[in-house]
């Protein structure tokens, strides 16, 4: 069988399953981006808050999850989560080991890491919002929530777009490590295809190329989004 | 979760025994990567169309694809070919440690090359012109004018990159090099005490990172004497507020 048959879409080909795996990689990365967005917003708020314990907790979070190796965090979530699930199972009279679903474990683990980076992105974006606008909003009588909704969030989202693009690329690469939990994403699928056909070189090259496609395409998407968003800045009042 | 000091301590001892392996991976791959990066930067900056095209392609491929797949490609992929197995390089490519170092170095070279290029671009043209006007050229110009400014500019990004490399050495455990993360994973599956082992391992990584950050800050301080305040002497006491640089 020639190599083109192996990666093609025929009966023996792995093309279809690799494309499916690419979708799984995108899904786990997107899920982790959402989890990370929620975590990142909370942690950024903690880091910017006036209370010292909250600031300390926020700093501790970003230090740990940016300082520890990604693989170690995946082990923490996968093994730790499975232990917790097993403990709950024992409590419900189920004997034996219960595993955390690998998609959930992967998304949470990459989400924890992404949350630490997103917190820094949001914090920077908050600091880029002009103080004058906040003062103006306060002076016409907007309350905290209204200020958040009308002044802060729209601008923070725009300012954080380039940073979020970087976080997305990081998460896309971190998602390869989720393969250790057995989730059939692109890395794991390339590995299985390589092992079962003994064509290691071929399938790792193909896997790598498909990752390049993903990173290049997402780069395009984020550049497009940034240009779209930049429109609202160019003619903005008080900005040049 | 019971707080078990004895267990934490024994975990710490076991993980610390793996620290030399992590540091060896880190030191070898960062220095080898820096050498590769110098070559790539040279191709990119002063090479012709062909060489700079190669440098661009290199950076695109190694920054755009994940490190794990690069490592597996080198460790499992190259060994597939009889030609490689019978070649001079087989002792190197058979060994998990050298494969891990090679993969880490090739990957970081892509990132380091971009950082070095950024540093070079930040050297003001007028500084180079001034150097030329003073009669410097070639290596002397590079050593006295270009390199000091470029290194100073690139240093903050460079420290970020090497901190990321400390974390990246963890992937070597997936090609059976027993460094800190691999050892931690083994301890977790033996004892099922995930949280404790994770905390101890993280503490070790944070300590390593902290030391590297301090060292890099020291280097940065040494390389930028012109940005510091002039030491105050008794006769010129009133100059503290002066802005330098």
UniProtKB/TrEMBL annotation, chain A:
Domain ABC transmembrane type-1: 22-222
Entry-linked SUPFAM superfamilies: MetI-like
Cited Gene3D superfamilies: MetI-like
The keyword Transport is annotated on this UniProt entry: yes
Molecular function GO labels: transmembrane transporter activity
Annotated compartments: Cell inner membrane; Cell membrane
Superkingdom of this protein's organism: Bacteria
Main location group: membrane
Membrane topology annotation: Multi-pass membrane protein
Electron transport is among the record's keywords: no
GO cellular component: ATP-binding cassette (ABC) transporter complex
UniProt keyword list: Cell inner membrane, Cell membrane, Membrane, Transmembrane, Transmembrane helix, Transport
One Pfam family recorded for the sequence: BPD_transp_1
Transmembrane spans: 17-50, 71-92, 98-117, 200-218
UniProt record similarity statement: Belongs to the binding-protein-dependent transport system permease family. HisMQ subfamily.
PANTHER family with a match to the protein in the record: ARGININE ABC TRANSPORTER PERMEASE PROTEIN ARTQ, CATIONIC AMINO ACID TRANSPORTER, MEMBRANE COMPONENT
Annotated protein name in UniProt: ABC transporter permease
Source species of the chain: Pleomorphomonas diazotrophica
Automatic annotation (TrEMBL), chain B:
Record's subcellular location: Cell inner membrane; Cell membrane
GO-annotated cellular components: ATP-binding cassette (ABC) transporter complex
TM regions (residue ranges): 20-45, 57-76, 197-217
Domain of life, source organism: Bacteria
InterPro entries: AA_ABC_transptr_permease_3TM, ArtM/GltK/GlnP/TcyL/YhdX-like, MetI-like, MetI-like_sf
Pfam families: BPD_transp_1
ABC transmembrane type-1 domain ranges (all copies): 15-216
Swiss-Prot/TrEMBL keywords: Cell inner membrane, Cell membrane, Membrane, Transmembrane, Transmembrane helix, Transport
Keyword Membrane (UniProt): yes
Chief localisation class: membrane
GO biological process terms held by the UniProt record: amino acid transport
PROSITE patterns from the UniProt entry: ABC_TM1 (PS50928)
Molecular-function annotations in GO: transmembrane transporter activity
Claim: Transmembrane helix is one of the keywords in the record: yes
Membrane topology term: Multi-pass membrane protein
Family: Belongs to the binding-protein-dependent transport system permease family. HisMQ subfamily.
Protein name: ABC transporter permease
Native source organism of the sequence: Pleomorphomonas diazotrophica
């Amino acid at each position: 069988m020639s190599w083109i048959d192996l990666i093609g879409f025929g009966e023996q080909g792995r093309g279809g399953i690799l494309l499916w795996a690419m979708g799984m990689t995108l899904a786990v990365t997107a899920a982790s981006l959402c989890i990370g967005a929620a975590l990142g917003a909370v942690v950024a708020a903690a880091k910017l808050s006036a209370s010292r314990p909250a600031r300390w907790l926020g700093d501790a979070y970003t230090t740990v999850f940016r300082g520890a190796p990604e693989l170690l965090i995946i082990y923490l979530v996968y093994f730790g989560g499975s232990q917790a699930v097993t403990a709950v199972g024992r409590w419900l009279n189920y004997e034996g080991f219960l595993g955390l679903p690998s998609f959930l474990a992967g998304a949470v683990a990459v989400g924890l890491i992404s949350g630490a980076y997103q917190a820094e992105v949001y914090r920077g974006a908050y600091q880029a919002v002009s103080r004058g606008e906040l003062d103006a909003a306060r002076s016409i009588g907007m309350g905290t929530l209204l200020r958040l909704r009308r002044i802060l969030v729209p601008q923070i989202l725009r300012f954080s777009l380039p940073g979020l693009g970087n976080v997305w690329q990081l998460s896309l690469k971190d998602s390869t490590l989720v393969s250790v939990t057995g989730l059939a994403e692109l890395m794991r699928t390339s590995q299985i295809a390589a092992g079962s056909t003994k064509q290691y070189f071929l399938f790792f090259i193909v896997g790598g190329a498909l990752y390049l496609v993903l990173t290049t395409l997402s780069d395009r998407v984020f550049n497009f989004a940034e240009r779209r968003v930049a429109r609202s800045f160019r003619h903005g009042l008080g900005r040049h | 979760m019971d707080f078990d000091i004895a267990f934490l301590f024994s975990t710490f001892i076991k993980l610390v025994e793996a620290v030399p392996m992590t540091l060896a991976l880190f030191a070898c791959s960062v220095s080898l990567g820096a050498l590769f990066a110098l070559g790539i930067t040279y191709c990119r900056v002063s090479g012709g169309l062909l060489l700079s095209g190669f440098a661009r392609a290199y950076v695109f491929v190694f920054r755009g694809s994940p490190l794990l797949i690069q490592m597996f490609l080198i460790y499992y992929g190259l060994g597939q070919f009889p030609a490689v197995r019978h070649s001079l390089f087989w002792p190197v490519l058979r060994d998990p440690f050298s494969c891990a170092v090679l993969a880490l170095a090739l990957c970081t070279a892509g990132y380091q090359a971009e950082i070095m290029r950024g540093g070079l671009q930040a050297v003001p043209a007028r500084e180079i012109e001034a150097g030329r006007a003073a009669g410097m050229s070639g290596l002397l110009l590079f050593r006295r004018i270009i390199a000091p400014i470029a290194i100073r500019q690139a240093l903050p990004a460079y420290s970020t990159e090497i901190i990321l490399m400390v974390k990246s050495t963890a992937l070597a455990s997936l090609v059976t090099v027993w460094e800190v993360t691999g050892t931690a994973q083994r301890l977790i599956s033996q004892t099922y005490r995930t949280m404790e082992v994770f905390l101890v391992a993280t503490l070790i990584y944070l300590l390593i990172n902290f030391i590297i950050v301090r060292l890099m800050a020291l280097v940065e301080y040494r390389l930028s004497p012109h940005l510091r305040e002039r030491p105050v002497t008794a006769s010129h006491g009133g100059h503290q507020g002066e802005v330098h640089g």
